[in-house]
């Protein structure tokens, strides 16, 4: 990326680094266990959301499989850990398992346009659950436990680092030619192809990259929970969270999923106290409201009037993106 | 150097033969005018050359290579660029981003022209940061050209680039075509034959999917078959 583009993302990168450092040093400040857990789930939702954002927010191809991709990462990592692999290798194995899954789904469906991919991801999400329930390797319906429990600080710091990296990655991508090409695919695939963009390959490549992030989130989460039950890990809830976070906060922006995750975690906590059974209903209503009234998501919706007020013309890549 | 070589290229849509056995060539440094009444098959021919769909019969060679079965994006990487008659901007991206999306041709030796310069060349400087969806039709037509040029093409297919442009803008665009042609080959489809013909080195006239006349612009102007095809439109000229 050019020097000019780098300068436009630098403040954002510094902000991300500062927030991540703050989040990672919560225990040192003596933050409560509750606060630490809250921050952990915030980071988890950000990673899931950014991973979905990378594929679906940028290219417009809606995925319902990001929960299953994260689940694959979790299972592969815990299985590898139990087989005695060192943590970094186990994490890498988790990412790889997700990438392999995404490759199968993507290679079979991204040649086609429109909803074929979405149906393929839904199918994959359900298939993964069925297989993991039956497979002896994964402990069947009874689940799988991590044999050597690690200090919680490890997955916590890991998740915060992943959130920071994923957000920084989307921020840089949004200002790069590669990011522009992904958006071009979302806008018009024929016009993109006419400009030399290898549409199918690029979609597949970005889906695999997105799966690597989802897999990393799942892997870290596997270390955090230390026990995996197929019905939880492959519940469609995780896929819905990955989708709701950027859709609510703002798609194809770096800040949107951060705002979306904060909102969802906040609402989740409030509902936990007042009406635990209403969680999915409220998320559903929120998604509906966003789709109806602010299709670009919360941050772009809030930013639009500010932009109209400021007379100064905006730099090119600034448009439609969150700070 | 022969850039493009079409042999008996045919395309049917159901029962309709949109392009029926067209053969033509384009060499570097020339502007070929492609004319013909509505429905003559001009855009379909562009789609076949650019690789939107394969022909039912015939072959297409480009830059010394058989590209008949090559997908559109690979042809673009070889240096084949086209604009769309019905403009297809990336609406949610800025004009600059529309240009930045283009992938330069493989083996492109001239360093990629900065987006700002390409936009200036089509008179869109000052619009670089506008959302493409907010531009007028005339601006979008010119954005198509800037975007195509951003691939550093060897051959440029322009499908009715003057439609929606003011007289002044059209003259500027034709001047750009003349400036560009030393470096590349250009095929230009236009309904405004009178305005376009002076920049053409050769012309081909299609009707009903077949070539009914081809040759130097002056010969085309007076060809009785052409006058008949354009009866009511251009016959008076
Ligand atoms: N995708 C398509 N499916 C079916 N028929 C098509 C398709 N594209 C073009 N046609 C038909 O093929 C014929 C040639 O159309 P084409 O668009 O190539 O003509 P044209 O010379 O570009 O006309 P115009 O000057 O109006 O742009 C027309 O009868 C048109 O209706
Ligand atoms: Mg046409």
How would you summarize this macromolecular structure in one to three sentences?
The complex is a heterodimer of chains A (323) and B (237). With 323 residues, chain A is mostly helical.
Characterization of this structure:
The complex is a heterodimer of chains A (323) and B (237). Chain A is an all-alpha fold. Chain A is built from 14 helices and 2 strands. In chain A, strands 1-2 form a two-stranded antiparallel sheet. The relative contact order of chain A is 0.17. Chain B has 9 helices and 10 strands. Chain B has helices at residues 42-50, 72-78, 95-100, 115-121, 137-149, 167-180, 193-196, 217-222, 224-229, and strands at 2-13, 16-27, 31-35, 57-62, 65-66, 80-82, 155-159, 185-189, 202-207, 210-215. Chain B has a 6-stranded mixed sheet, with helices on both faces. The longest helix of chain B has 14 residues, at 167-180. Chain B starts with a strand and ends in an 8-residue tail after the last helix. The mean pLDDT of chain B is 92. The chains are: A mainly alpha (323), B alpha/beta (237). The complex binds adenosine-5'-triphosphate and magnesium ion. Adenosine-5'-triphosphate (ATP) is lined by residues 13, 16, 18, 36, 38-44, 85 of chain B.
Task: Kindly list the characteristics that best describe this protein.
heterodimer; A: 323 residues; mainly alpha; two-stranded antiparallel sheet; 14 helices; 74% helix; 1% strand; globular; disordered C terminus; B: 237 residues; alpha/beta; six-stranded mixed beta sheet; four-stranded antiparallel beta sheet; 9 helices; 10 strands; binds adenosine-5'-triphosphate; binds magnesium ion
If you compute it from the alpha carbons, what radius of gyration of chain A comes out, rounded to the nearest whole angstrom? 19 Å
Order of helices and strands of chain A: HHHHHEHHHHEHHHHH
CA radius of gyration of chain B? 17 Å
How many DSSP helices of chain A? 14
Helix content of chain B: 25-40%
Runs of chain A in which pLDDT lies below 50 for 5 or more consecutive residues are 311-323
Overall pLDDT confidence of chain B: 92
Distance between the termini of chain A: 19 Å
Could you tell me the mean pLDDT of chain A? 89
- Give unreliable regions of chain B as ranges: none
Percent of residues in helices of chain A: over 70%
Percent of sequence in beta strands of chain A: under 5%
